[in-house]
Design brief:
single chain, alpha/beta, 6-stranded mixed β-sheet, 6-stranded parallel β-sheet, 15 helices, about 20% strand, binds flavin-adenine dinucleotide
């Protein structure tokens, strides 16, 4: 019997478990470990709460978790409760699927002022991530800014601009819904260092902004290159630009009190304020001949008492594992003998949920060729891990615990919401009587 430990229960972890299960059938046991008693990583804590249909992918992961050879072991933080070396003693292979949970820093003066938050923090706050339950983002000013030109920036801007009723059917946590409902923010400026052609925003996410109840998108037509230049774009990007051009051609709806202003060619230089963020000083840029942003020397100020940086994420290093550029150093997913990385921990924070699938299958293939089906294995696996955790007083949770938490969340749902997520680990553990 082979024993495999997949560390992290986000998409990459589940696709890897699925691939290993298919490759080995009942000749292997696969344990999916996670630091939280509930799985799914960014499907739970990242993907926007008003995009419920995207979260449906978790049904596929449920099936993996229900397979006879797969176990979920929650509430275990690898690197703290158990080391990689210990796991390599207990398992035939260890696969790191720990994602990239940390915000990349802006690297500009003033970014530590109160009122400046990373998108991982802000997104975690409205999605019920226990680390950010107390974030309390300042929502009493009228202006906010989001730095970044990707879909996460759009998520943040949209969530700040929606009305209470537009969250109907979402699983946004109650504390965030109440705070956003009372928010005074009327203008959200989305800052990008380059122009419309360089955005990393997909058509669906952009298009949504044109249909919000109380907010209009504002785009300056002068920011676009001549329309013939759109023809050279790949089809998805061309669609996004078409939507942006439509926004530019449509005057803001005067019946809508809020606006989302796309400020292109805008490079944040510093954040200023008297003890808290009040404005961003920005330099106007232009594109150089390689398509990079080049400062023009012209500066201006964007008022904002809440500033969200959405410029990317970085993985958490573990022990002395080789690490560079925000991810584990690996070759095709292999870090070292019997140690692998998949998903954002392997590639960095890019791509969609589905992009993690080939990662998982590729690494399962590597493992299967190193340890062919039928070859012997004599590691202790979950039995040994559970003994070790018990000795250390770590209260690991299991599949039944996860289901119990979920049932309680569903039972606690406010009207119109699929569930009310727990936002504190103590509440999860209380539910389990621990
Ligand atoms: C704000 C946001 C919105 C997004 N929206 C979309 C979208 O709409 N559509 C789309 O296709 N993609 C979206 N994505 C991208 C998608 O979420 C990622 O591609 C995907 O989640 C990456 O999967 P992963 O398994 O590598 O990491 P994660 O999903 O982050 O999973 C990592 C898991 O590892 C666990 N973990 C971390 N450290 C440890 C440790 N030391 N010990 C034990 N467990 C640990 C975590 O708890 C987590 O469960 C979004 C991403 C973000 C940030």
């Amino acid at each position: 019997m082979r024993h495999f430990a997949v560390i992290g229960s986000g998409p990459a972890g589940f696709y890897t478990a699925e691939a290993l299960e298919k490759a080995y059938g009942d000749a292997a046991r696969i344990d999916i470990l996670d630091r939280y008693p509930v799985p799914y990583g960014l499907i739970r804590f990242g993907v926007a709460p008003d995009h419920q249909s995207l979260k449906a992918v978790s049904k596929r992961y449920d099936k993996v978790a229900e397979s006879a050879g797969v176990d979920f072991i929650g509430n275990v933080t690898v690197g703290r409760d158990v080391s990689i070396d210990e796991l390599l003693e207990l398992y035939d292979a260890v696969i790191l699927a720990i994602g990239a949970p940390h915000d990349r820093k802006l690297g500009i003066p003033g970014e530590d002022l109160p009122g400046v938050v990373g998108s991982a923090e802000f997104v975690g706050w409205y999605n019920g991530h226990p680390d950010f339950a107390d974030l309390d983002p300042p929502l009493s000013g009228t202006c906010a800014a989001v730095i970044g030109n990707g879909n996460v920036a759009l998520d943040c801007a949209r969530i700040l601009s929606k009305t209470r009723s537009e969250f109907e059917g979402s699983d946004i946590v109650g504390h965030a819904l109440d705070a956003l409902d009372a928010s005074a923010i009327r203008t959200v400026t989305i800052l990008g260092r380059r122009g419309p052609h360089q955005i990393a925003m997909t058509p669906k996410e952009l298009g949504e902004l044109g249909h919000l109840e109380a907010a209009s998108p504002v785009v300056d037509v002068a920011d676009f290159p001549p329309s013939e230049a759109d023809e050279a774009l790949e089809p998805g990007q061309r669609k996004s630009i078409k939507i942006l051009r439509e926004f530019a051609a449509t005057p803001p709806d005067s019946a809508k009190p809020k606006c989302m202003v796309f400020d292109f060619f805008a490079k944040p230089l510093r954040i200023e304020g008297d003890g808290k963020a009040e404005k961003i000083v920005v330099e106007r840029t232009e594109l150089d001949d390689k398509g990079a942003a080049r400062g023009t020397g012209e500066t201006y100020e964007v008022p904002a008492s809440l500033i969200i940086s959405a410029i990317g994420y970085s993985t958490q290093p573990i022990g002395d594992l080789p690490f560079e550029g925000g991810k584990f150093i690996n070759e095709g997913g292999r870090i070292a003998e019997r140690l692998y990385a998949v998903g954002w921990a392997r590639r960095g924070p890019t791509g969609t949920i589905g992009t993690n699938r080939p990662d998982g299958y590729e690494v399962a293939d590597l493992i299967a060729s190193a340890m062919p089906l039928g070859s012997a294995g004599d590691r202790a696996g979950a039995g040994g891990l559970k003994r070790l955790l018990e000795d250390r007083g770590v209260m690991a949770t299991d599949y039944d615990d996860w289901r119990k938490i979920e049932e309680t969340e569903v039972a606690n749902a406010r009207p119109g919401s699929p569930r009310e997520k727990f936002v504190r680990i103590e509440h999860w553990l209380d539910t389990l009587g621990r």
